[in-house]
Known about the structure:
This is J domain-containing protein. InterPro entries: DnaJ_domain, DnaJ_subfamily_B/C, J_dom_sf. It holds the Pfam family DnaJ. Residues 26-90 form the J domain. By secondary structure, the protein is an all-alpha fold. It has helices at residues 12-23, 27-31, 39-53, 63-78, 80-89, 92-101. It has 6 helices and no strands. The chain has a single domain (12-101), classed as DnaJ domain (Helix Hairpins).
Amino acid sequence: MLKIRKMTRVTDEHVQLIRQIKIKKDYYAILGLEKGCSVEEIRKSYRKLSLKVHPDKNKAPGSEEAFKKVSKAFKCLSDDDSRRQYDQTGLAEDFEYNQQHNVRRRRRTGHNV
């Protein structure tokens, strides 16, 4: 059985999409969403965008970096706690730092353990 490999071409559209994602700093902007969007809208946008920028599908330079950025945006915005923290600070760096160092905020219960 002969396997035919699908040839993927790098188009201007692919290059432009990667460039736009790399420029954007705001997670909502990366996913093309507004701040008050639902989790379902976040998931839908992520699925659609991740297919477009996945390095196996998009051979444009920087597609791996763009895919990672889209994935980080989804990871942050799809989790209620991290989304709330991101909405308060607006800083992607805080979320990324916490993820890298596994920092978790402890809630104070009012009594000592």
